[in-house]
Specification:
18 helices; 551 residues; four-stranded antiparallel sheet; 48% helix; Rossmann fold; elongated; single chain; Isoleucyl-tRNA Synthetase, Domain 1; 2 domains; alpha/beta
Amino acid sequence: MNEAAEMTASASWLAIAPPPTPNGDLHLGHLSGPYLAADIFARHQRRKDGSARYLCGLDDHQTYTALQGIREGRTADQIADHFGARIEAALDRSGISIDVMVRPRASAEYTTFVQEFVRVLHERGQIVARERALPFCAGCERWCYEAYVSGGCPHCGVATGGNGCEGCGRPNQCADLTDPACTVCAARGEIRSVRQLVFPLEPHRDMLTAYWAETAMSPHVVRLCQDAARTGLPELAVTYPGDWGIRAAVPGFAEQRIYVWAEMAAGYLAAGPDVWRRSGHVVQFSGFDNAFFYAAFFPALMTAFDAAVTPPAAFVTNEFYQLDGLKFSTSRRHAIWLSEVLDEVPADLLRLYLAAEGPAVSEANFTWPRFDLHIRQLLLPRWTQWWDELTRRAATTAGVPPRRAGLTAGQRRFRSRIHRLADEVDQALGAAEFSTRRAVDLLDLVVREAAEYGAAHDTSRAGADGLAEAVGLELEAAAVFALCLSPIAPATAQRIWTALDRPGHVHEVPWADRDALPMDRSAVVALDHVGKALQADGYQTEEMVTRGATD
C-alpha cells in the first residue's frame, strides 16, 4: 500500500479499472471493456500531465475465485495465485500500462485498512446489523450468495447470479431471486435468517442524487441510478457468513467475511487517499453490469468514511461484448482467450479494432471475419497506401529545396485542419466525452485528409519544388498522426515515429508540442518499412479468420 499511496498521492488524474477476478484467464470481452479504455485514457493524460496514473488490481476475494477452486479441487489461494499471474501476464502482453497494481493478499496493510474502514463506519452507525433472509444449501452446508447462487432477477426476470444482475444492472439480495439455487450442486436454496452487517443507501439519497446530476455518465447508467432511486435505495451487504475473504474486525461479526464490493471501495482509498480529496481528478471505468456499485455504493461508502473524499468526476462504462450472440463469460467458459489471440495477432491490431468496434455504448458481437474486414481489408490498406504514396513523393522531392519560406493560404488551411483533428482526438480521449471509437474515426480522417492533399499536389503542374512544400506538410501530418495514435496502438505509433526519424519515444512527447512538429524530408525513406511491416502484421490474422469462420 505504501508504494501505491506514494505513486498516486500527487496524481492529477487517476484512471481506475475494476480488478479482474482471478477465476480464469482474461478473454477478449475483458480487454474490450474497461482495461483497454482506462489504458488509452491514462496514456493520453500522462503526456498532458506526467503525474497521471492508472490504478487496477486483482479481485482475489471474489467468491467466483473460491467457486472455481471447488470445481477444480484446489484451494481458493491456489486458484487466485495461478490465474492472477496469468491475468497480469496477459495485460502486459496487451500493452496495458498499469502504474499501481493492488494485490490484496500480498499486503497486510491493505487488510488492516479494509478492516478499519468497516470498523469505523460501524462505530459511526453508517454500517448496521440486520437480520436478513439468505439462501442456504443444506447439502453443501454453505450460505448461497454472489457466485454460490443463481436464479431469476427480481427486477427484470433474467437469469442471474447473486447480488447483481448482468441484465439490468440492479442489485439483488439473493433471497429475492426467483427459484434461488446452489451453483455447486444445483439444489434449491433454503431461505434462512442470518445476522449480517449492511450499508443502507437511502440515508444518502440527497447526496447521491446531487452527485449523479453533476457527474459525467452514460444515459444507460443515469437511468439505472434513477430507477433504483425511484423504488427506494437498497441496503447492501457489507459482510457475509463465508470462509473466503477478509474477516470483519467488528465484535459479533469476526467470523464473517467482508463482502468483496465493500472491500474494493476501501481498497481504492487505500491505494491513494489524497487523490480522492481533490475534486475532478478520478475517472472510473467499468462494465455496465457493475455500474450501480461504482455509481452509488462506492460514493456513499467513501464519503461516509471521509467527508473530504470527492468521488469520480466521470464514469466510463461499456456494454457487453458477445461471442456468437452470448456474453463473454469466464465463469461459463464462453470466450476467446486473450493469451491465445495474442499468440497470433499483434496486440496493436487487437487494440485498434477493439477501440474502433468494441461495445462502448451498445452491445457488440465479435467475429473473426468482421475483425478481418475492418482491419485487414479496410482500415490498414488505406493507411498503408497513404504511407507508401507519401514515401514515393518524399523520394521524388529529395534534395529539392522548398519554393517559399512561408506557407500559402491553402497550406495553412491544410495544416489547420490536421491540427484541428488532433484537438478533436484530445477531446475524444478526455474524461467528459471519452470515446475511443470517435478517436479512431478521427485518425482515419487525418489519413484521408493527408492522402487527398498529397494526391492533389502529386498531380499538379506546380513542379518538384511545389511538391516539396506539400510533402513537408504531409510529413508533419504523419507526425501528428503518430502522436494521436500512440495511446491506442503504442508500438505502431512508435514505428511510425522512428521511421520519421523523430528522436525518443512518441508517448513521451508533450501534447502541447503537437503544433510544433516540423519534419525533415530527407529521412522519410524509412516510411516504406512501416507500411510493409503493418501489412505483414495484418496478414498474420489470416489463420485466425479462417478458423473463426469454420468453428
